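Entry 12.
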Amino acid sequence: MARANTTNWRLDRRINLSALLQLVALASLIVGSWVNLQRQLDLLQRDVTMLLEAQKHSAQKLETLSAQSLAHEYRLQAVETSLGQTNFH
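Predicted 3D structure (tokens):
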């Protein structure tokens, strides 16, 4: 009978060790996934920041072009009215 108890105890010990190893493996996978997710989020944040900076730069260029276009429109109107007045005289 003493042998049966020893065998059962070893079997339980192996199951417990196996469960412990599985828990450690699962925990390492969870930590690895978390670290990978944080790295991906950092990259995404950097990309979004760069995109916002590029959008801001494009908006400034568009504003400059709009102002130039408006100035050219006024100049063109001035030239047209000037030509129109000289043609009438």
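Annotation: The longest helix spans residues 2-88. The CA atoms of residues 45 and 51 lie 10 Å apart.
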